[in-house]
Amino acid sequence: MARRRASETPVEQLGAGEAAREYRRLGEEIAEHDRRYYQDDAPTVTDAEYDALRLRYEALENQFPELATGESLTHTVGAAPSEKFAKRRHAVPMLSLGKAYTDEEVGEFVARVRRFLRIPDEAPLAFTAEPKVDGLSLSLRYEGGELVAATTRGDGSEGEDVTPNARTVKDIPHRLSGDAPAIFEVRGEIYLTHAEFALINKRQVAAGKAPIANPRNGAAGSLRQLDAKVTASRPLHFFAYGWGEASSMPSGTQSGMVAALAAFGFKTNPLTRLCRSADEMLEQYRLIETERATLGYDIDGVVYKVDDIALQDRLGAVSREPRWALAHKFSAEKAVTIVDAIEIQVGRTGALTPVAKLRPVTVGGVVVSNATLHNEEEILRKDVRVGDTVTIQRAGDVIPQVLGVDLDKRPADSKAYEFPTTCPACGSSAVRETNPRTGKLDAVRRCTGGLVCPAQAVERLKHFVSRNAYDIEGLGEQRIDEFYRDGMITRPGDIFTLAERDRRSLTKLENREGWGRQSAQKLFDAIEARRTIGLDRFIFALGIRHIGETNARLLARHFGSFEALRDNGRRAAAGDAEALGELTAIGGVGEVVAEALVDFFREAHNEEMLDDLLAQVTPQPLEVVSSTSPVVGKTVVFTGSLERITREEAKAMAERLGAKVAGSVSAKTDIVVAGPGAGSKLKKAAELGLQVMDEEGWFQLVGGQG
Questions:
Q1: What's the start-to-end Cα distance of the chain, in Å?
Q2: How far apart are alpha carbons 399 and 103 in whole angstroms?
Q3: Is residue 132 flagged as an active site residue?
Q4: For 159-218, what is each residue's pLDDT tens digit?
Q5: Using CA atoms, how far apart are residues 482 and 508, in angstroms rounded to an integer?
């Protein structure tokens, strides 16, 4: 059995030296994630993955107290303020919150508070429950009722002075209403609505910039601008929920203070409720979770706080967290939302795929507004309808899917969805073919229009330029839609004549909206750089049904050149049994793939497309596979973030060394290479007792052969 990494070993089984090494490694990793989240507004792991690192770090400290120093991350909040802004110290530290993911943990929180305060179970004890808005924490200082300073959380003790920017946010009053304390620090959350986030991203893409990952990043980046005019152009909002320094207290309860904040002119969250038991707290949690999709802004859980401020003071704080508050997080991969519409998308092979158009909701750090319903049988089996409240799931980069419907919330006038029998893009018949081997209907309905169907044509182009195919920087899906609509690119070969046609044209690309001379030239240069490409990627880019990356690589290795593959395909299409036999004899290819390849070469329009394309590009033979490397014949899985090379480079490297690269961990996996942020795959590898190593270990294993 392979030796387990320290991070897979129960803390109580670690030796002192091993624990110290892991503690240092975790500290560096957590600090880097803090920097990315708080300073760069660009996190690279989910909240759940980050929380797991924190829990492991704290468990090491508890088991080995000698590891903790004054610089321990359990005593810090966030990250050091950016050097771009002036720094300002908080009069009262801005603490983080303890987190819970289960009902049992909430019950234990209530019991823990009662034990600490020595309040018996039958005695009254109230808590507030409020949505945990996913934005940027901000502290506003008012003196004599006037706004004098705005400071981000920073490291909890010191933050960034963003006062000019905060003054541009319409929800932040410059002067407090009513009889406010002489000195009063108001704390709350800066956020963007889903609709405004979508508009900002639309402007980003139009300007040739990368879209922002989620509203939280958008809000943080908008507030932390060096030019307050940029912040003013972004429609930011602010919810107030707490306070810092106060010369006097308007109320003796949390709920009373929130009411006072509203009276002073702040927006407070209307879903805040006073609860008198753990059951009521969980009831409010479930209500807020079901309301999540209708709010129009991101929340990622519910925060519970002891209502009596005198009791809050008695409870105090431990480490970086108050004892009197808890954040009950939603699932990192699931969410409840509403189906606004069901649309049919036509893929490059003509498959009609039903897609649920959802009320936007953020899941795993990504805004989700679409979920696949897979096929006709699936949508009928789950009986998903427009207006339904559904649970969706997103895992990693997998397209979100609908798990189920809450029938109790189904509208009274809902109607069962009727799957179309004609293609919505071209009007051709859409049929379910019968599998000749099984005699059963295919689960997928397909358009019979072929390349006369514009949806299939444009989807094939999108596939051609996708990341694992031609991967042309600046020519993504939106650009393909735009260029196809305007007749600039209708087949793959057109991509490589775009620059020449642009030079001869009076309506140049640089004069189009959202373009300029520099951006146009950058695209032309990126296209030029792809005139040579690996044979496997070229075959994959053609979008032949059933030929994915793995089969494309098998064909490339077997035939060596596209000319040899094309000759074989032509002969097989003409009925040459020997040519077909050569295809089916390739290990891993099989009859289905062979027939798909033959069908491709039977079509005259495909041959025309290839002639056109090959006049512009030159596929390159693959490098010879090593026969002496230590990973020949082994199955390798890469997971987490890689720092020295990209995931694609790592994959290509492993295959050059004779290894097979898999996307999931199983008992057949030999090696798992795990970088920072590795999650479920690393856990499964540990359960199976597989050989696990980090990126450095991988390079040491293969030596200089990569």
A1: 26
A2: 28
A3: yes
A4: 999 999 999 999 999 999 999 999 999 999 999 999 999 888 888 877 777 788 889 988
A5: 14
Between CA 527 and CA 499 the distance in angstroms is 9
225 φ, ψ (degrees, to nearest 5) = -100, 140
Does the structure show a pLDDT above 90 at 40?
no
- Mean pLDDT score of the chain: 88
Residue-wise pLDDT for 589-604, tens only, equals 888 899 889 989 988 8
Ordered structural domains, the chain, with CATH: 6-75 (1.10.287.610), 99-329 (3.30.470.30), 334-430 (2.40.50.140), 449-530 (1.10.150.20), 534-620 (1.10.150.20), 635-705 (3.40.50.10190)
Looking from the CA of 540 toward its CB, the CA atoms found within 13 Å total 20
Structure token digits, residue 36: 């990315």
Q: For 526-550, how does the pLDDT look when each residue is reduced to its tens digit (9 = 90+)?
A: 999 999 999 999 999 999 988 999 8
Burial-class residue 72 by CB neighbours within 10 Å (0-12, 13-18, 19+).
Answer: middle
Neighbours of 281 (CB within 10 A): 23
| CA distance linking residue 145 with residue 705, whole number of Å | 68
C-beta atoms surrounding 392 within 10 Å: 24
| Helix pair angle (16-34, 47-63), 10° resolution | 150
Q: What's the token pair of residue 28?
A: 């560096």
Q: Name the residue among 455, 468, 442, 485 with its Cα closest to residue 347.
A: 455
Segment holding 110, helix H or strand E? helix 103-117
Q: Report the DSSP pairing between strands 146-152 and 136-143.
A: antiparallel
- Of 433, 128, 408, the closest CA to residue 284 belongs to 128
**Could you give the residue ranges of the DSSP H alpha helices within 163-245?**
163-166, 194-206, 215-223, 228-232
Which residue(s) pair with 368 in the sheet?
361
Q: What phi, psi does 618 have (nearest 5°)?
A: -135, 105
Q: Supply φ then ψ for residue 41, to 5 degrees.
A: 55, 35
pTM: 0.59
**How far are the Cα atoms of 136, 182, 218, 228, 584 from residue 208, in angstroms, in the given order?**
26, 48, 17, 23, 45
Q: Under a CB-based contact definition with an 8 Å cutoff, are residues 307 and 252 in contact? A: no
- Which of the residues 84, 99, 132, 440 is marked catalytic? 132
Distance in angstroms (rounded) separating the CA atoms of residues 692 and 210: 34
d(CA 63, CA 40): 33
Residue 470 identity: Y
Q: What's the CA gap between 59 and 10, in Å, rounded?
A: 10
E strand residue ranges, 394-429: 401-405
Task: Pick the closest to residue 377 from 432, 324, 428 (CA basis).
Answer: 432
Provide the CB-side half-sphere exposure for 613 (13 A, CA). 22
pLDDT of 431 > 60? The answer is yes
